[in-house]
C-alpha cells in the first residue's frame, strides 16, 4: 500500500504549484469521477528513492462562499481519513485567515501527522513573517517557495520519516 500525502488548504495558497513540482514528469493515476473526487488529483512522486501518492485538493466548482468552504472542509475530512501525512498549506503573504483557523481546528482533532507548509516564502525577508504560523498550534512549520522549490527538500526529508 502506497503512502499517501494530501495537500490541503485555502484556494490560491499554491497547492497545485507544489503538486506539479512533486509529480513533474509523472502521470496522474486516477482521473476524474464525480463530486469530491472531481476536486482531487492523484499523482505519483518520489523522494530519495521512496515513491508515494500525492493528492492535490481543490479545483472547487462552487458558486457561493458557503458551498465553497463546505467543499474545503470536506477535503480536509477525507484527507484525515485516507492520508498517511497531511500537508496543510498556508500563504505567508496573507497571514492567517478565518478559514485557515477552521482547517487547523479540524486537523488538530484528527490523528494524522500534519506538516504546516508556509508557502510563498520566496526570499529571506519573509522567513520572519512565517513564524506567525506557529500560532496555528500544529507544531513545526516548513517554509517553502513552491515556485522556486526552495525549502521543499527539508520538508520532504521530514515527511518521509512518517512512512
Ligand atoms: P492553489 O489554488 O492552492 O492550488 O494555488 P496555485 O498553485 O494555483 O497557486 C495560486 C497562485 O499562487 C498562482 O498565481 C501561483 O503562481 C502562485 N504561487 C504558487 N506558489 C508560489 C510561491 O512559492 N511564491 C509566489 N510568489 N507565488 C506562488
Ligand atoms: Mg489548485
Automatic annotation (TrEMBL):
The keyword GTP-binding applies. GO terms for biological process: ribosome biogenesis. This is GTPase Der. One of its GO terms (molecular function) is ribosome binding. The keyword Nucleotide-binding applies. It comes from the Bacteria. GTPase that plays an essential role in the late steps of ribosome biogenesis. GTP 1 binds at residues 9-16, 56-60, 119-122. Keywords: GTP-binding, Nucleotide-binding, Repeat, Ribosome biogenesis. Signal peptide: none annotated. It comes from Mucilaginibacter robiniae. Belongs to the TRAFAC class TrmE-Era-EngA-EngB-Septin-like GTPase superfamily. EngA (Der) GTPase family. The gene is der. Associates with the 50S ribosomal subunit. Residues 3-163 form the EngA-type G domain.
Amino acid at each position: 500500500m502506497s503512502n499517501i500525502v494530501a495537500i490541503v488548504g485555502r484556494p490560491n495558497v499554491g497547492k497545485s504549484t507544489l503538486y506539479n513540482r512533486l509529480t513533474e514528469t509523472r502521470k496522474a493515476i486516477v482521473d476524474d469521477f464525480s463530486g469530491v473526487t472531481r476536486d482531487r488529483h492523484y499523482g505519483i512522486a518520489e523522494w530519495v528513492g521512496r515513491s508515494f501518492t500525492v493528492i492535490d485538493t481543490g479545483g472547487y466548482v462552487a458558486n457561493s462562499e458557503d458551498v465553497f468552504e463546505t467543499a474545503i472542509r470536506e477535503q480536509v475530512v477525507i484527507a484525515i481519513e485516507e492520508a498517511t501525512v497531511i500537508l496543510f498549506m498556508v500563504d505567508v503573504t496573507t497571514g492567517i485567515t478565518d478559514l485557515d483557523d477552521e482547517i487547523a481546528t479540524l486537523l488538530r482533532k484528527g490523528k494524522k501527522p500534519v506538516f504546516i507548509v508556509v508557502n510563498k516564502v520566496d526570499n529571506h525577508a519573509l522567513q520572519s513573517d512565517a513564524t506567525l504560523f506557529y500560532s496555528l498550534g500544529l507544531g513545526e512549520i516548513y517554509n517553502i517557495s513552491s515556485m522556486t522549490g526552495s525549502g521543499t527538500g527539508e520538508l520532504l526529508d521530514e515527511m518521509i520519516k512518517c512512512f
